[in-house]
Amino acid sequence: NPPWDRLLPAAKEFFAGYNIRVLDAPTKREREGLEKELLQDRRIAEAYHAYIGEFRSIEAIVDLLYEYQVAIVDGQRTIGKLDAYRVFMERNYQVLCDGGVTGIVVPSAFHANEGATGIRQLYLYHMALACCYSFENRRKLFEIDSRFKFANVVARKSEAGTQAFRCRFYLHNDEWLFHQVGAFTYTREFVEKTGGEYLSFLEPNNASDLDIIATATRHSKPFHHIATSRSIALGREINITDDAWRFEDIGNVYKGKKDPRMPEVVRELTGIGCLLLIEGKSFHQYTDMWDEPPRYVLPISRLNDKPDWVRSAQIYKVAHRKYAASTNERTGIFCIITPGYISTTNSPSDNSARLHPNADALELCAVGNAFVFDFLLRRYVSSGTLNYFFLARTGYPVLENAQRIFLVHSALRLTCNHAGYAPLWQEQLGDAWREPKPKHTWPVLATEEERWNVRAAID
């Protein structure tokens, strides 16, 4: 203890034992090429198959002996790599007598990650959890990365389950354990309400944060419930690695000087049969022109086997950044994307945009970019990746009709920054124009002061 390891083969490290160049390969494709060459050697191939076989044996044993490593949520199996700590925690439960106590130091994934849902079910419903104190490794209590987080967990075996337990997050000094000043008390009902079916633990910094979270929780529903009720399905389309053969460098098809995201350039590219590849770093809240312009296009001729992607590129849809840490200025970064784009792994977009009105996407954009939603979202995101698992549990406000109309209209004004959004404006408002500037000129809100006034009103 602590069991940091994942029970998974590390192919890169295995092959590096035979050719150190594997570690320096700049792309996955080149690394796999080197690995394929090494496997031509029968001795290496036999050693590799034996190595993989060891892990397959472990997986078979785990499937046979353990029942809480995978959970079913919304009819789907939870995903996550097989971690040693999860197996340890279930084994501890198995060997305890009734009333027996276990104490263990584990990665913070225990209280935060989707893959540990089954273990949280076990410790909340078949164990009486006494405490979960989560530390950041800034003081190098363990000789691992200083950014790594781990938790001190104590529980007693009891079929009555957990009624309440003490917790605290973002601790640094192990001496705190002997005083426990400022520890929170969570009830199982609170975890069920704030963590949803995944039962993850909210991570407030202090008591004031916890009060705000409790208030917001009373006036909201989980994001996933709202999205499902409106047929909104956020997910990636193209995989940057597996679908790399479909890409074409934008410089090979567009020789102009303008930003390729300009509406006239997007029309030019679609006219010659190319769709732009949008990445998370190229958009921000309420703007599809942020930082670096797109680097690649996808010729439609290379998408013959993906007709849904081509149809999706013909409509407006909401997208968000996947890589956004809780320590960034903002974690929730949502934007309405114009037609002419395909999204990637790092910019999940609404794959069901045809099944609901655009007003739903605009409302989601307003809520997702709001400061309050961001505050709640940051209590869940424990890494630099905003997976849907984190979004799904975040509180989404229950809105009255007048509030919804206001949010949709405000998001529309903030989004319509160039002529590419003119059809969206016309769809929502027709010829109505109550802005101080000349009719149907873009952007709708011309100055930063105007934009921040509207954003403040949304907040």
What distinguishing features does this structure have?
17 strands, 36% helix, alpha+beta, five-stranded mixed β-sheet, 459 residues
Description:
- The chain has helices at 11-16, 28-38, 42-65, 84-95, 109-112, 117-125, 188-195, 207-218, 223-229, 263-271, 307-312, 358-368, 371-378, 388-393, 401-415, 422-429, 448-458, and strands at 72-73, 76-77, 101-107, 127-136, 149-157, 164-171, 184-187, 220-222, 234-235, 248-249, 274-278, 296-299, 317-320, 334-337, 341-343, 349-350, 395-397.
- It is an alpha+beta fold and 459 residues long.
- A 5-stranded mixed β-sheet has the order 3-5-4-6-7.
- A hairpin with a 2-residue loop joins strand 1 and strand 2.
- Helix 12 packs across helix 15 and helix 15 packs antiparallel against helix 17.
Gist of the model:
The protein has helices at residues 11-16, 28-38, 42-65, 84-95, 109-112, 117-125, 188-195, 207-218, 223-229, 263-271, 307-312, 358-368, 371-378, 388-393, 401-415, 422-429, 448-458, and strands at residues 72-73, 76-77, 101-107, 127-136, 149-157, 164-171, 184-187, 220-222, 234-235, 248-249, 274-278, 296-299, 317-320, 334-337, 341-343, 349-350, 395-397. The chain is of the alpha+beta class.
SSE diagram, text form:
Elements: H1 11-16, H2 28-38, H3 42-65, E1 72-73, E2 76-77, H4 84-95, E3 101-107, H5 109-112, H6 117-125, E4 127-136, E5 149-157, E6 164-171, E7 184-187, H7 188-195, H8 207-218, E8 220-222, H9 223-229, E9 234-235, E10 248-249, H10 263-271, E11 274-278, E12 296-299, H11 307-312, E13 317-320, E14 334-337, E15 341-343, E16 349-350, H12 358-368, H13 371-378, H14 388-393, E17 395-397, H15 401-415, H16 422-429, H17 448-458
Parallel strand pairs: 4-6, 11-15
Antiparallel strand pairs: 1-2, 3-5, 4-5, 6-7, 8-17, 9-16, 10-12, 11-12, 13-14
Helix pairs in contact: 12-15, 15-17
